[in-house]
Amino acid sequence: MKAIFRWVPVASSSTSHEQQPSVNQPSTPVEPQPADSEPQSVAPRRAVPPREPTPRHPYRVYGYKLNNEWFAKFAKDHNIGKPHWGAGGIESGVLGYLTLRLPGFQIHFVDDHASDADFGYSICICLATNWNRKKLERAASRVSIWMEILGTEEKPRWYKPTVETIPPIPR
To answer: In sequence order, what are the residues at sequence separation of 6 or more whose Cβ sits closer than 8 angstroms to the Cβ of residue 57?
Structure first.
């Protein structure tokens, strides 16, 4: 059996003008305790609060679905873009314009097989999601602002986004 020593430095006297070298002296050996004995001074473990679980219901977004015709009309009405811009340039210009004006702006892709959308998807700019109650409560006060900026009379709707745009963590 091997003895375990704890080394403690010896404090030197501060009143003495002589410098004494500090000497490490071994303390009394500490005997290991058997595995079945109870430790004498163990602090109780604190319970860790559980993490908020990810919602089990399907992810939905609350907003407006925008297709290529809407982007072209909005760009023309607001004089965004140049005549030689294609659909991608117009879309980027309109989204840049809207980013500065719409509070709480998020982009998701939604299935849109009914229209001539690119690859069967349309862009959805959304106010909130069903995974974040705080944003959903704030969305009610922002609907009138969004309707005015987008130039529409219809209210936002719920959409199911594509799997690629669903975040792993609720936001």
So the answer is: 130
Look at the chain and report how many structural domains it folds into: 1
To 10 degrees, what angle do helices 87-101 and 68-77 make? 70
List the domain range (segments joined by +) for residue 74. Answer: 61-164
Q: Give the CA angle between residues 67, 98, 109 to the nearest 5°.
A: 40
Global confidence as pTM: 0.59
- Between the CA of residue 153 and those of 74, 76, 114, 143, what are the distances in Å? 15, 19, 22, 11
Residue 152 within any structural domain of the chain: yes
Burial of 138 (0-12, 13-18, 19+ CB in 10 A): middle
For residue 148, tell me if it sits in a domain. yes
Start-to-end CA span in the chain (Å):
58
Please indicate, yes or no, if residue 14 is contained in any of the structural domains.
no
Tens digit of pLDDT for each residue in 17-67? Answer: 555 555 555 555 556 666 665 656 666 777 776 666 555 668 888 999 888
Hey, which residues does 65 pair with through a beta bridge?
124
pLDDT in tens, 55-81: 566 888 899 988 888 888 999 999 888
